[in-house]
Amino acid sequence: MAGLYFEEFNVGQVFRHAVRRTVTEADNVFFSALTHNPAALHLDEEYCRSETEFGQRVVNSAFTLGLMVGISVGDTTLGTTVGNLGWDEVRFPKPVFHGDTLRIESEVLELRASRSRPQNGIVIFQHRAYNQRDEMVAICKRSALMLRRPSA
Predict the structure, then answer these.
(1) Are strands 120-130 and 136-147 parallel, antiparallel or unpaired?
(2) Greatest CA separation found in the chain?
């Protein structure tokens, strides 16, 4: 199992995930279509070129959020998470464009035992995404309900 149990996390622990991902036009168009988001900002190159400050399509921020959290899973919660409890303080300080390569860091902000589920603990992560220019493009806090280590 690649993920860590609740007891294996420490406050202040930082994961610099080895997986990086270049975001493609297909990623953006497929994700926007699959989620029924018809915003011209994501789909209409001519509109973006002439009517926006960006001059090109902007990657759907929900895709960026999902990718940021998804890349973190292999090093942190794969097979040891019960479920996500919530995403808070989600911010996108810079846009993501087709061709940007994202790298992700995750930091453990808080740990607490679950009062209602003694076999679980709650880990609060902060996930951060950076583009190839080391500009932060996304940040969020994620609350994950984690398995505790099984007793021997």
Answers:
(1) antiparallel
(2) 64
Fold of domain 6-147? Thiol Ester Dehydrase; Chain A (3.10.129)
- pTM for the model: 0.94
The residues, any chain, with a CB within 8 Å of residue 100's CB and separated by 6 or more, are: 22, 23, 59, 131, 132, 137
Closest CA to 61 of 140, 123, 126: 140
> CA–CA distance from 97 to each of 49, 50, 81, 141 (Å)?
13, 16, 31, 23
Helices in 2-109 by DSSP H: which ranges? 25-34, 40-43, 45-51, 61-76
* Residues facing residue 91 across a β-bridge: 139
Residues of the chain with confidence (pLDDT) below 70: 1, 152
Residue with tokens 């309900």: 145
Confidence (pLDDT) at 1: 55
**Domain assignments of the chain as residue spans, ordered by start:** 6-147
